[in-house]
């Protein structure tokens, strides 16, 4: 069975969920500090009107970090003005929002380097250094 989930922004003027959501974010930030417990809130699973989404984004604001990731559509990760609170938005190739999350953590999982990617990078840098060293050695030999 193949089910497709479609999440839409509420057409209502207000759902009354912004203040409770902000309290949830505040509690999650407190838990992160006290117990190193990370939290992810899927905004597409919460009833929020378009104006409430805008109100939430305005309240959270922008901090010092913004990352743009291009992979199967764009993803934008923005640190809010509250350190440890991040807004992550996923777009498809048609620039439609496919997912929107608030992460309460030191660093969102999408930004963290993956161990298997780091192993590949280590192998690549070793090869690249060797190639550069070989080129330098060959260039020096040709100058003699």
From TrEMBL:
Belongs to the HupH/HyaF family. Residues 17-126 form the HupH hydrogenase expression protein C-terminal domain. InterPro entries: HupH_C_sf, HupH_Hydgase_express_prot_C. It holds the Pfam family HupH_C. This is Hydrogenase expression protein HupH. The lineage of its organism: Bacteria, Pseudomonadati, Pseudomonadota, Gammaproteobacteria, Alteromonadales.
């Amino acid at each position: 069975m193949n089910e497709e989930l479609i999440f839409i922004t509420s057409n209502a003027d207000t759902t009354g969920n912004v203040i409770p959501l902000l309290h949830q974010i505040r509690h999650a930030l407190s838990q992160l500090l006290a117990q190193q417990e990370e939290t992810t809130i899927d905004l597409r699973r919460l009833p929020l009107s378009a104006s409430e989404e805008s109100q939430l984004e305005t309240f959270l604001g922008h901090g010092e970090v913004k990352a743009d990731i291009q992979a199967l559509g764009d993803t934008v990760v923005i640190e809010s003005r509250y350190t440890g609170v991040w807004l992550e938005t996923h777009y498809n190739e048609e620039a439609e929002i496919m997912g929107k999350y608030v992460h309460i953590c030191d660093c969102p999982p999408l930004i963290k380097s993956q161990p298997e990617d780091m192993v590949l990078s280590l192998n690549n840098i070793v090869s690249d250094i060797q190639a550069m060293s070989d080129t330098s050695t060959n260039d020096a030999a040709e100058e003699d």
